[in-house]
Amino acid sequence: MLTEAKEERSTSEGQDRKRQSVRDHVKAKARGDLIITHKAAILDPAARERFEHLLAACEKDADEIACEGGEEASTEASGTEYSSVAYEVGYIRAYMEALPMLMATALARCDALEIAA
Fold first, then answer.
1. Is the Cβ–Cβ distance between 5 and 37 less than 8 Å?
2. Which residues of 3-24 are buried (b: 16+ CB within 10 A; e: fewer)?
3. Using CA atoms, how far apart are residues 85 and 94, in angstroms rounded to an integer?
4. What angle (nearest 5°) sits at the alpha carbon of residue 18, between those of residues 10 and 85?
5. Which of 2, 40, 76, 93 sits in a 20 to 30 Å window from 65, CA-based?
6. Which pLDDT belongs to residue 3?
7. What's the pLDDT tens digit per position in 20-61?
8. How far apart are CA 13 and CA 29, in angstroms?
9. Over the chain, what is the mean pLDDT?
């Protein structure tokens, strides 16, 4: 009985680590894609710092949006054995869609503020 509980906990912890690893990979890929798209690697240090600051704020917002996307997907799949998988797929899909849009909006706002100033 105790051995089964240990095995179950170990399996659950392993799955959690895999999920987190996939999320980390997706976030790194999305971040890298934005850096390439906006040619942030060739910006001067001050502009690169502003870009990184905007990106960090957008990543935080994208994570919140992705959590909501995961919850929606999980709710749709509730009652099935796939609800946790649906959550992860929903999270990843929402994150990959939200981050580029949030960053484009943030950059457009910055450009508009610079023009207005």
1. no
2. eeeeeeeeeeeeeeeeeeeebe
3. 14
4. 100
5. 40
6. 78
7. 999 999 999 999 999 999 998 888 999 999 999 999 999 999
8. 24
9. 89
Beta-carbon-side half-sphere exposure of residue 70 (alpha carbons within 13 Å): 17
Q: Which of 37, 109, 24 is nearest to 66 (CA)?
A: 24
Q: What is the pLDDT of residue 2?
A: 66
Check: CB of residue 21 under 8 Å from CB of residue 92: no
pTM for this entry = 0.83
Domain ranges of the chain: 2-116
Query: Do 38 and 98 touch, CB atoms closer than 8 A?
Result: no
In this structure, what token pair is assigned to residue 8? 């179950």
